[in-house]
Amino acid sequence: MRRFEMKDETSNKYWEIALDAKTVSVHFGRIGTDGQVKAKVHPSTATARAEHDKLIAEKLAKGYREVGSETKTKETKSALDLVPALFAQFEALTKKAKSVAIWQGKITFPKGAIDKWRSRAIRYSEEKVGDRLDRLARELADGRRFMDLHVTGDVVEIRGWDWLDEWESFDSELDGLLETAAKLGAKGKVGTHGRFVHSGAKWVTRDLRNGKVDIDEGQEWNEKKAAAALATIRPARDEWLAKHPATRRRIEHTRLHGYIDRDGHEVSEPRFTRTYGFSEGLAVVFEDWRPSYVNREGSIALAGNWQDADSFARGMAPVAIEDTAHWGYVDRNGETKIAPVFEAATPFHQPVAVVLVHGGRHRWITQSGELVGDPFDYYQHDPRSGFFEGRAWIYDHEKTSLGCFDEQARPAFARRFHTVMPFSEGLSAVWEVGGSKWGYIDRTGNTVIPPSFDEAYGFAEGVAVVRIGKEHRLIDPRGKLVSAPFASDGMCSKTVSEGRLPVPGKGGVGFIDKGGELVIRPRYQQAAGFFEGRAAVAIRAKGKAPGAVVWGHIDADGEWVVRPTYDSTNRFVEGRAPVQLGRRWGFIGPDGALVVEPRYRHVQHAFIEGRAWVEVP
């Protein structure tokens, strides 16, 4: 698992990617939230690797920086602890678990075909149907999932329920079982009834028709169907929970968040269901799924009749009023400063913020509540839409080109471009409309470096990475080549950090300096950029599965300061770096000594204002 982050005045996001044989999984969202997971199974390992590398390259081109390995794909799925159950029948059981999925269905096989079904191989998998069913049965016995399979003659009935961190994997496993059933001419239907999220639920129905599985995803919640599905499985559910008291306790008493300081001392007991990082001395928390703000001492400092809330910036914060779900802005006393009339709103990291007005159009708004500028398309997860060095790139509403705006929402210059990179060190890499190469412009829109590159990235510490043909080079702000050619790929950063840039070479990944000279020889399986004098690097793990790695940190000379013993780690921020051992996370100091023993299920991967949230196991 590799992790990339985009942090600036307007963005505070992460993006993670994992490659497991033919499956590419991505996990993304705002830092401090659980985010979203998406996965795709490819026809071959080669196409999966190509997609993996392409996605990384796209993120790097948008300005993301790699910050180290995060976690394994399976555990990433369990990071999606988003919301409570939406039904009274599940309220007591799932108040601390986040979501519930229900599935039920029936498959009618031709006579004698069930044994053939068990012997069939599953597409894109090393397992046969029987192997998968046996594995699911073992997981059921271990209390890791609930699934009820009944076989009567030639009929298989599937009934079950699970939490959000399990149903995603079960959905893909269920698809494999149904695909092989369809090939045998089985008749029947299996429905996944309810993917419960904070703002609603999604219904997914799987039908076996004409030798294939048709998947129909709906968007609306159906209370009658949900109640019927719950009633069907309730007896089996209660019997199963009675046999697994540890699982019941886990649901009812865990997965709560609190805050610790840099020394690992608890400043807020774990009692929140969701937490964000600190901003201007306050952090958004959710307790019983209602948002409020805590101070650095962990006490509730501000609360209101809100459904959702975001971070403070410039003394104001966007909040969604519970009764209407419309967004407005409040000050640090909780007083309304901008009326809640918007469909969405973002913090005032600059003199203007972005709001979504009725009709699906985005506008800029000032702190006095005045809408300024023309409507535009805005993508919260696109770093170009945020302000960098007083400039933001915004698509016109027809999405044909990008224009540049200043902090007062005025056009910075008239020129528009097909695609761009955010401004850094006074320059922005741009691709002209109708052009074929990348060049660089300054903050007034004047061309500083003519278009001549096949790829171009942002400047950092006086240099930028560009590609000419198959060769990568470093250039200075005048466009002069300042390094010899070097290798680079989607596995490595495209931005110099603290005078070093990770690059692949014979023997692994090493580091070059700003002149392109090799300063740390290639010997690592993976490497991230330097932060606070340390870089996270990985080497092969001896005695573990092929491809397994262990992580540590090196200094600018390539010497170990944190021995490679961890399953995952991240960059140093405020003198602390998160580390993972097994399924638990803790923090280390710059000398590698454990400051916080690995005992948490998840942690915020960077201290902000001396605080980090943690989630109890």
Can you describe this structure?
This protein is α+β, with helices and mostly antiparallel strands and 617 residues long. Helices cover 16% and strands 44% of the residues. It contains 8 helices and 47 strands. Strand 39 and strand 40 form a beta hairpin. The longest helix is centred in the middle third of the chain and has 21 residues. The radius of gyration is 26 Å and the shape is globular.
Structural class based on helices, strands and sheet pairing: alpha+beta
Content of β-strand: 35-45%
State the total count of DSSP E strands. Answer: 47
How many individual helices?
8
Distance between the termini: 21 Å
Radius of gyration: 26 Å
Mean pLDDT: 83
Portion of residues in helices?
10-25%
Strand order of the largest sheet: 7-8-6-9-10-11
Largest sheet: 6 strands, antiparallel
* Low-pLDDT residue spans: 70-98, 196-200
What is the overall silhouette? Answer: globular
